[in-house]
Amino acid sequence: MIELDGVPELVDPVMVAAFEGWNDAGDAASAAVAHLEREWKGEVFAALDAEDYYDFQVNRPHIWLDGGVRRITWPTTRLSVVRIGSENGPVRRRDLVLVRGIEPSMRWRSFCNEILGFAHELGVEMVVVLGALLGDTPHTRPVPVTSVTSDEDLARKLDLEESRYEGPTGIVGILQEACSHAGVPAVTLWAAVPHYVAQPPNPKASLALLHSLEDLLGVGIPLGDLPEDSRAWQIGVDQLAAEDSEVAEYVKSLEEARDTAELPEASGEAIAKEFERYLRRRDGQPPAGGDPGSYLRDPGSGRTRPRRRPPEGDQGPQEPGSADSDD
């Protein structure tokens, strides 16, 4: 039983998770959640026991000095809460539960069940997992972000892609399937990172994930220095590519392939979405066309949700290699 006596009742909570490792190309996903923690001053309320899930020879602890006292930081996964909007303000009140950590080394089913135990206890209405993968995409074009789910009803309601991926998976895919088994609506946002500049950081991919999260939740996210960092990153990669004729030619071929396709980023709908994001950040208003939070039970009531106990007998995904949303 998970006890969260120190955490206040949450309003329409959504869990947003990202994990360093195989599903985090360029550290784009984990950096996006870290940005949310910083901008919204997330308060950590729980951490998973590192002994249960991590091989310390793979993910080593760090020793540091705190006023002359030596301390140890263990690799783990932490949960924090951020509160958005207000009861009487222009933005409807919404709380986020942020999950940020490292892909576990072992006991993935137990790991996911523990995360879902927190979700049930806090009354989380939906889980959004952020991931990043390497792809044949040019750094000069908008970062493609794919929104997928294993929930047929959710795919229809939110106009998402239903996952058909089969193959090796990471913790993002396993958590997506665990949510499906537990009856928790879940969406995974995948950003494609150029494979020829895979090293972190990649602020442009992080920014693209946050834009997609804005569209999904209908909230304005303070972006801070991310837009400027994204432009600086692209200029830096431009300069590196210009110094190598083979890389420059390869980037050109990727650009031509992207430009000949029908890109959602170039459509009128995408331009309208970008303008809506601007208005949300400027005025704090919800997007036109209704409340995107309509997938929530009792949407827009402003009432807190009672915490729920995990369903009896929920064992999460049966096999780590089951079909998931990694690609």
Automatic annotation (TrEMBL):
Q: What Pfam families does the database record attribute to this sequence?
A: PAC2
Q: Which domain of life is it from?
A: Bacteria
Q: Which InterPro entries does the UniProt entry name for this protein?
A: Proteasome_assmbl_chaperone_2, PSMG2_sf, Rv2714-like
Q: Where is this region: Disordered?
A: 275-327
Bias (Basic and acidic residues) ranges: 275-284
Name this polypeptide is given: PAC2 family protein
Organism of origin is: Streptomyces litchfieldiae
